[in-house]
Amino acid sequence: MKKVIIDGNSLTLKDLVNVARHGYEVELDGEARKRVEKSRAFVDKLVDEEKVVYGITTGFGKFSDVSITKDEAKDLQRNLIISHACGVGPNFSEDIVRAIMVMRANALSKGFSGIQPNTLDTLIEMINKGVHPAIPEKGSLGASGDLAPLSHMVLPLIGDGEAYYKGELMDGIKAMEMAGITPVELTSKEGLALINGTQVLTATGALAAYDAKNLAKLADISASLTLEALNGIVDAYDERVHKVRPHKGQMDTGKNFLRIVKDSGRTTRQGEIRVQDAYTLRCLPQIHGASKDAINYVLSKVDIEMNGVTDNPLIFADDEYAISGGNFHGQPMALPFDFLKIAIAEIANVSERRIERLVNPALSGLPAFLTKKGGLHSGFMIAQYAAAALVSENKVLAHPASVDSIPSSANQEDHVSMGTIAARGARDICYNASRVVAIELISAVQAIDLNGGSEKLGLGTKVAYEKVREVVSTWEDDRVMYRDINKAAELVDSNVIVEAVEEAIGELEF
Predict the structure, then answer these.
(1) Where do the domains of the chain lie, and which CATH numbers do they carry?
(2) Catalytic residue among 24, 54, 164, 465
(3) Which of 107, 121, 139, 239 has the smallest CB count inside 10 Å?
(4) Cα(422)–Cα(428) distance, integer angstroms
(5) Handedness of CA 90, 91, 94, 97 (dihedral sign)
(6) Nearest to 341 by CA among 413, 423, 452
(7) Which residue, 375, 344, 379, 386, is CA-closest to 449?
(8) Per-residue pLDDT of the chain (510 residues; tens, 9 = 90+)
(9) What span, in angstroms and rounded, lies between the C-alpha atoms of 7 and 405?
(10) How far apart are CA 254 and CA 240, in angstroms?
(11) SS3 breakdown of the chain: % helix, strand, coil, rounded to 5?
(12) Is 237 one of the catalytic residues?
């Protein structure tokens, strides 16, 4: 079985995706285990000496001024979990739950949280044996971390709550028993160590950012198909244009378009058919490039957060000191994930405008709605409606969550990030955008068939055209459209078009 070794410092987005979506197991690094053991020993010392440390010998939030005795430590930690499990709504998907679990395990393995090694081992065992806690999507403020959803993650760990095992939702204790895992009894600091962090919002947003990167590459390909269908002008992608305004995403995108349509007999030069194209073709390096720059910015923040410690208090065993700070606050990720929402929404926005250019005879010069039998047949008329609806929904979802804050815990926690809402929004926008691009793919290949066929397509567009036509045949008569959209969406989700094009022309710039 393929494994990812976690040490708190070197988890990559690729590692995260492999655990979340490809069933990789997780193993704790040996040096990391030593750090965890040392951190735990210092927590035990604090408890034995009855030092006043938040969350270890005190209550939580507004109750931080309430002292907790050594004898009450276990009750305190269990009560924390069961009282904080206040999530509502549908449960997160399995890949997000696995991403949450591995990110939390990775943060704990840095050795600044005071977790018992056995508790961390049990969390890792749950990942490896496929016990996936039922974690409702809603209920987190993104500070103090993702308290409610992470509490749901912990419930099966302590033999409570609900979990999925082999695809079936059941009581958490039953899932643990069926997987042969012994639940743990939490002691001082452990409940807080498990739930006081940003792993839910970061896991959700990280997977959305990963999908957004792939979607942005595919959008270059789908736009290239549209360019070929409309005999678009390639001069606007000339490297000289972009060198005088050298934004990386813009320059990369211009290069991508020229490589994808290389050797095409369908594209044109300025003045051959028309002097210039509309913005949705001519300005693609600027539009797609700006989204790519935003996505890369978000990915850089994800890389930091995946290997950060977002607990409170932090245990510095080497210095024998515990500090109550604010690393649980989700603001460093809330703003990037709001930025990600806008970046992905714009990919869909311009894709829908290209669909309109394909189906509108006044703009394309092609048969109306890409059907030869207009009137009797509606062709791609309502496919554009669906894309427009998705784009409009994205505009609502793109409203920033991070600009809002509602005080909590009797104003002790008086500013929160709402970062989990931002991350969920990015995920939802990415889903909608992927369906818009799927509609563009099937519209563009239909337009190509109506405008001379695929013989003179470029190196990359030819490959993409063939991949789409493997699952969606040319429209001659009206048929049930959603089936074709779903087939194209499966191509988008599997990333096979990007992989095939990159195999043919080399990796696309990003």
Answers:
(1) 3-197 (1.10.275.10), 205-505 (1.20.200.10)
(2) 54
(3) 239
(4) 10
(5) positive
(6) 423
(7) 379
(8) 899 999 999 999 999 999 999 999 999 999 999 999 999 999 988 888 878 787 777 766 667 667 777 778 788 889 999 999 999 999 999 999 999 999 999 999 999 999 999 999 999 999 999 999 999 999 999 988 899 999 999 999 999 999 999 999 999 999 999 999 999 999 989 999 999 999 999 999 999 999 999 999 999 999 999 999 999 999 999 999 999 999 999 999 999 999 999 999 999 999 999 999 999 999 999 999 999 999 999 999 999 999 999 998 999 999 999 998 999 999 999 999 999 999 999 999 999 999 999 999 999 999 999 999 999 999 999 999 999 999 999 999 999 999 999 888 888 888 999 999 999 999 999 999 999 999 999 999 999 999 999 999 999 999 999 999 999 999 999 999 999 999 999 999 999 999 999 999 999 999
(9) 34
(10) 10
(11) 60, 10, 35
(12) no
> Is 168 buried (19+), middle (13-18) or exposed (0-12) by CB count in 10 A?
exposed
- On whether the CB atoms of residues 204 and 424 are closer than 8 A, the answer is yes
Question: Minimal CA–CA distance to 63: which of 392, 409, 341?
Answer: 409
DSSP state of 58: B
Q: Which two tokens stand for residue 12?
A: 């990559």
Q: How many Å apart are CA 457 and CA 105, to the nearest integer?
A: 49
Q: Could you tell me if 58 and 161 are in contact, meaning their C-beta atoms sit under 8 angstroms apart?
A: no
Q: Which of 75, 204, 73 is nearest to 150 (CA)?
A: 204
Distance CA 19, CA 285 (A): 34
- Transcribe 358-427 into DSSP letters: HH-HHHHSSPGGG-TTBTTB-TTHHHHHHHHHHHHHHHHHTS-STT----BTTTTB-----HHHHHHHHH
